[in-house]
Amino acid sequence: xxxxxxxxxxxxxxxxxxxxxxxxxxxxxxxxxxxxxxxxxxxxxxxxxxxxxxxxxxxxxxxxxxxxxxxxxxxxxxxxxxxxxxxxxxxxxxxxxxxxxxxxxxxxxxxxxxxxxxxxxxxxxxxxxxxxxxxxxxxxxxxxxxxxxxxxxxxxxxxxxxxxxxxxxxxxxxxxxxxxxxxxxxxxxxxxxxxxxxxxxxxxxxxxxxxxxxxxxxxxxxxxxxxxxxxxxxxxxxxxxxxxxxxxxxxxxxxxxxxxxxxxxxxxxxxxxxxxxxxxxxxxxxxxxxxxxxxxxxxxxxxxxxxxxxxxxxxxxxxxxxxxxxxxxxxxxxxxxxxxxxxxxxxxxxxxxxxxxxxxxxxxxxxxxxxxxxxxxxxxxxxxxxxxxxxxxxxxxxxxxxxxxxxxxxxxxxxxxx
Length: 418
Ligand code: NIG
Ligand code: FE
What we know:
- The longest helix is centred in the first third of the chain and has 17 residues, at about 125-140.
- By secondary structure, the chain is of the alpha/beta class.
- It folds into two domains: about 5-75 and about 375-415, Roll (Urease, subunit C, domain 1), CATH 2.30.40; about 85-365, TIM Barrel, CATH 3.20.20.
- The protein is built from 17 helices and 15 strands.
- A hairpin with a 2-residue loop joins β2 and β3 (about 45-55).
- It is globular and about 65 Å long.
- α5 (about 125-140) packs across α6.
- The chain has an eight-stranded parallel beta sheet. A seven-stranded mixed beta sheet has the order 3-2-1-4-13-14-15, with no helix packed on it.
- The chain has helices at about 5, 90-100, 105-110, 115-120, 125-140, 155-175, 195-205, 205-215, 230-245, 260-265, 280-290, 300-305, 310-315, 335-345, 350-360, 360-365, 390-395; strands spanning about 10-20, 35-45, 45-55, 65-75, 75-80, 145-150, 175-185, 220-225, 250-255, 270-275, 295, 320-325, 385, 405-410, 410-415.
């Protein structure tokens, strides 16, 4: 073990520690994690080795003391669904949507995802990295310590690889964990108009999928199942092929219309089904009987003036629910998970504590990392936020105000806002 592996620190002066348990946290359990007043955390080698009352904490010596200044400590936030690597900007479409244009019409008339595709195809890896780095830095400022990032704006084997390489470069540069997802099936690019099957063949070739696996360029595979994108059958074929190369399936489903894609994805053992604005009771029952976690993206409903997902109903049925930003240039240009928590609180009637569990333990479970991050547990990685507020309710309540004082990743302070 080298020096930094043995490094021992004490986080003290914690007025409230929110002991989020390991995910997935289901149903009513989401609203009541244990709270410890006057708490401390001891970190050794980047992992939590004690949490509890300050007075019961093991004594030093410590290499470092981190003062929480009487604030609240929670697990670092996990954004389990983003498209945060892209080039260009679509504020023109944002205005058109305000004036009444709809998302699918814009997509079908060559804009939307294809608009960003043109900008991404024209960019180099370095340009994609430069365009995306400040976004990710802002996400860290808002408290994200793990962020999933999808490809999906290249829409050709080379351009999809380019996007995933950009994610890889950012992962080596930035102090947080980035989780890459292959979203080759985001929509059909113009050169394959009316030839979706041939497009799918081109992006699921053995050589490409073997390269993604061998170079560890993606952990998950995702597909947009919707009018203007792919059918349930096409989505299934794509995910099955990717799964054959070790990529774990995920899906964008029931966002703008109900397709039944979620049940198909459950059948494939998908890690998550995301969006679910139009989810029905039979699908909720299928999710309950599975390990597929519903991910709700209320920033999208807010941004597109569209339907919201029935979060309360899913929680009441006993499901573990996750929340994510869906940060992307078209349907949700939101980088802040705490803002999404506030939107979920007001529009979906989730309590602030449910929102926190949805963005930590349950998001970690979506990304298949619940035994490592997203919770306060001995042996888990010390990814923590020190918040300059007396409790979690005050965070979600003060919409758009950022109380993140310190971001701690693997026990190290990576951001100190004083
Ligand atoms: O999750 N729905 C499909 N994909 C994104 C939007 C992508 C875009 O419009 O650029 C989403 O909403
Ligand atoms: Fe998305």
